[in-house]
Amino acid sequence: MNMNFKSWLVGTTMLAMTASGAFAEVVLNRGNSMDPESLDPHKTSTVNEANVIRDLFMGLTVQDAKAAVIPGAAESWTVSDDGKVYTFKLRTGATWSDGSPVTANDFVFAWQRLTDPATGAEYAYMLAPVVNAEDVTAGKKKPAELGVKAVDDMTFEVTLNAPTPYFLEMLTHQATYPVSKANIEKFGAEFSKPGNMVSNGAYTLAEFVPNDHIKLMKNPKFYDAANVKIDVVNFIPTEDKSTAMKRFEAGELDMNDDLPTEQLADLKAKFGNDLKIGPYLGTYYYIFKIPKAPWDNVKLRHAISMLIDRDYLAEKVWSNTMIPSYSFVPPGVSGYETRTTDYAEMSQIDREEAAKKVLGELGIGPDKPLKMEIHYNTSENHKNTAVAIQEQLKPFGIEISLVNTDGKTHYGLLEQHGDFDVARAGWIADYKDPANFLDLCKTGAGNNYSEYSNPEYDGLLAKAAAATDPAERMKDLSDAEAIGVARDLCVMPLLYYSYHDIVSPKVKGWEENVMDVHPTRYMSKE
Amino acid sequence: MTDIAAAPPKAGRSLWADAWARLKANKAAMVSAYYLVFIAVLCIAGPWFTPHQFTTIYQDYNRVPPSLSAYPKPEMLDLAVTDAVRRSRVDLLSWEQKDGKIYITVTSAKPIDERMTRYIDRSSVFEGAQIVDKSADGLKVILSAEIERKYFFFGTDNSGRDLLTRTLVAGRVSLAIGLLAGLVAVVIGVLYGAAAGFLGGRTDEVLMRIVDILYSLPFIFFVIMLVVFFGRNFVLMFLAVGAVLWLDMARIVRGQALSIKRQEYVQAAEALGVTRTGILLRHVVPNLLGPVVIYMTLLVPQVIILESFLSFLGLGVQEPMASWGVLISQGANNMPGANWLLFFPSLFLTTTLFALNFIGDGLRDALDPKDR
Amino acid sequence: MLRYVIRRLLTAIPTLFVIVTISFFLMRVAPGGPFNQEKGLNPDIKANLERVYHLDESLLMQYLRYLWNLVRGDFGPTYTSPDFTVAERFANGLPVSIQLGGMALILALLIGGALGIIAALHQNKWEDYSVIATATAGSTIPTFVIAPLFQLFFALSLKWFPVGGWGDGALINKVGPVLTLMLPQLAIVARLMRGSMIESLHSHHIRTARALGLSDYAIIIRHALRGALLPVVSYAGPAAAALLTGSVIVETIFSIPGVGREFVFSALNRDYTMVMGTVVVIALFTISFNLIVDILYAVVDPRVRYD
């Protein structure tokens, strides 16, 4: 027993010495606010999964340190004149981590796998622009009928339903990443385990201990391995944000992708420039149940919207980590003109007067209050937001009661179009395009929780989807937003998200961007 | 023989008198009892006397530290003025404080709307704002406003609500939950345990088997499902929690019932033809009361702790209501910055649980016949 | 004795069956499902997922399927982490929880027991009062207050321990979680030990032993302690089951990959198979520890016999 302990002690000391001395591996400890559900690119959906998968795999296109689209597994590509056929030339010399080449067949296999109903991929719709993709996922067509083709080993051809200007942008999403056909045929569902997984990105999977860490090692076979400066990346789940800050302070984490915003003032004083806060492509909004009276009255919806003091929410409730919002699509999509509600520029007092007038016409006032229930899912900030709105509307005769439920109950209620008045929701862009937001108000869309339905709006979106000229498309989308959001409030925008990270000054090459995307391959550590 | 039938009530009285005397001699328990009464009165009546509502949000006072002197502090005025002026979308030229009033000079490129005084009034720092002087072109205005004095003895929370009032209101909720759930558990436990013990035989076996099974059912899972299912109506929720916590009580009562049944005086009474109800009232109830009261004092703190655990998971009572557990878990999230958010609710919770524990100990010593 | 153990193990089977059945249906009554999330799924994709996990079948069919798999020792896949099966998640988390819980339990029993004895031997003296006061404090301050305070003081100010993380099981990483897990238990053990020790010291056979001139030390160890252990043993059973299956608060705050979090978050995530797995594991632990306690009873107290 005693001997064992001694040898264990010697062993660990030696280990510690080799780790710090001889090799001087560069290790980056990245806090990731949630553990990935899966490391199989086709079974993932969240931002936290994307963070890890972006290091492991490489799509046809990838994002650079500033989130601009650059060539990835594809060296170059050509687009047919009608904008519907993309031909990708794969990178010569790019291989999987086992040394075998990445071929067009791997992409055909991967995309068929993503759309195949048997995979049960949550983000199968990322390939919706591809011919037959939606029918394959719905089980109406065979995966082999998907509009993709391996012209030869190094040439991958994709046929789209309509010209899709944001297609290359979509390809940066992890759901479209390739997986090795040979690898999956060998291990099946077990392929995503450490030891089994073969990947084509800058890193390979070494360990995955759920709730503890995911360890990635530099992939020596990566085509750009010479420029990859960090040898080991540990993704550490940091569900408890307060603990994450303490671990950052103690040097156990080099960075984290979330902050406890309620402590922001203290964090600013302590960490100063290590905090990175900036606009992010996401919107925090409330929805009215539009078919339910009295919320079918668009004037009432606007009156309530006008009474909400968004500046206060952004400044005090969210400590300036959010930005007041009057449109659904956040600014930051190039070529798109955001359309805001017409009171966006009014002062809060003018808004309140206007709202009071409308409420007066509807016979609502402090002596004749209107009852309204706000549903929100469990979170400190959602709660504080709802509490603030409750107090803001009270003097005008809107009596709000708050209903907090856990996330599953909340979204279950919304999805089944259950009974509520007003509910919280949020949307973070999957890729940089307004349609990714505006599709949510389309008649019958899965995430159309307000049950808004307007043929004019749907028509504009359809027109945009078929447009060949990108500028014209953006114009149609913009007009759609003016009708569906600014005029009809299919969603009631409250705030734009911003990313809030904390990064140690030792980490170099971390660049701020609206997608909050930070692949490790561009970073280094002193 | 008649002596035996007549003796128990007398013994009962003396037992209670005796116990009471012993409880009174136990200083820790008595101090705790007074303290508990004090806390209860404070929580129930206190919120009527504090100068704030527990729901009111003071926009300019979020996360201000506790202080015995009035807010606003002199150094806060500048920020309050700038904030209010910025929100009315005009430019601040200067401000000064004179005879307890504040004078603000603002300017703008467009003529200034006189309604801007409302922005000043809306700030929780000022009241009675009015325009004192206006330049001819209407581009420059001097306003005056009174400074509103407010006291936050416990500071305020992240939303700018008075923590003192919230702690007291939360105390009502926590104590009510503890009592309610405790009562439910005791009632179910006593009825169930007594039924098992007195009916005996096959019924007893089946009833206790059910208790065994429920014992192995994961408690956390059960509570989470109940909370999720009942929504977050706290009365229903804690009726549910109480309905889960009755298992121990049932076992204790059954054990007591079994031993009482075997007591000679009970058997004698039965032989004498005293009715079942008579036996229950005269012999069983007084004998059970001791363990039940003791168990109850242990159960109440247990429920309050359980409630705080649920709050930590985000399953506590609905806003804008609060319980000590809700406040503490918020406070723990705000460490080390706004430590008062943790300190005051914790102080109330901990001391109350302390008191309940000492009372429980005191009652046990007082009621335990072995010690006599 | 052996026959008794076998009989107890056999009665555990129907108990488990009832528990599995109650939990299965109770869980399904809760609103929402595993695939409800902020970004809702489109109906086709949701249908595909439900087909993959057999959630499109009737509830009764799913129940029978689950029972059949369970009988064959298959706990099924998890919905919220498809890379792992339920069994693999437990294989990962249980060793961690057992190490932490075991250490916390042993420490609580040893230290709490010792404190309880000290308090009992000095009844109503300052030693007694200070033990009782600290013990009460330990059980009244919520764990989620103690844990962050520990981190702030010992990890950030004094830098003695890491703030969080499992560190592949390094001893230094365990100190914080073990201490915070132990504290409430220690308090309860100390109080229990004190109470039963006082009772035991007042009992007839101890008085007789004293009258016979046995030394105080011999009396305490050989006689009083033995009688006083019973309530502690019966408390330790359920406590062990609770501790070994982890604590969600300690694991969340110290970032420990144990199974305690699974119990809570699988229920909140409606990860049905994982919930059922946790129910079975907790039930098994509870049943076995109750059995162990009953056997220990016979060991500690020769008057107790099973046949």
Name some characteristics of this structure.
heterotrimer, A: 526 residues, alpha+beta, Dipeptide-binding Protein, domain 1, Dipeptide-binding Protein, domain 3, 11-stranded mixed beta sheet, 16 helices, disordered N terminus, B: 372 residues
Can you offer a commentary on this structure?
The complex is a heterotrimer of chains A (526), B (372) and C (307). Chain A has 16 helices and 19 strands. Chain A is α+β, with helices and mostly antiparallel strands. Chain A folds into 2 domains: 3-239 and 504-525, Alpha-Beta Complex (Dipeptide-binding Protein, domain 1), CATH 3.90.76.10; 280-498, Roll (Dipeptide-binding Protein, domain 3), CATH 3.10.105. The longest helix of chain A is centred in the N-terminal third of the chain and has 19 residues, at 2-20. The radius of gyration of chain A is 25 Å and the shape is globular. Chain B is of the alpha+beta class and 372 residues long. Helix content of chain B is 64%, strand content 9%. Chain B has 13 helices and 4 strands. Mean pLDDT of chain B is 81; it is low at 1-12. Chain C is mainly alpha-helical and 307 residues long. Chain C is built from 12 helices and no strands. Chain C has helices at 2-29, 43-52, 59-71, 86-121, 126-140, 143-157, 171-201, 204-211, 216-244, 248-254, 260-268, 272-300. The model of chain C has no long low-confidence stretch (mean pLDDT 86). The chains are: A alpha+beta (526), B alpha+beta (372), C mainly alpha (307). Chains in contact: A-B, A-C, B-C. Chain B binds chain C through residues 212-213, 215-218, 220-222, 224-225, 228-229, 301, 305, 308-309, 312-313, 325, 328-329, 331-332, 335-336, 342, 346, 349-350, 353-354, 357-358, 361, 370, and chain C through 15-16, 18-19, 22-23, 26-27, 29-31, 132, 136-137, 139-142, 144-145, 148-149, 152, 199, 238, 248-249, 263-264, 267-268, 275, 278-279, 282-283, 286-287, 290.
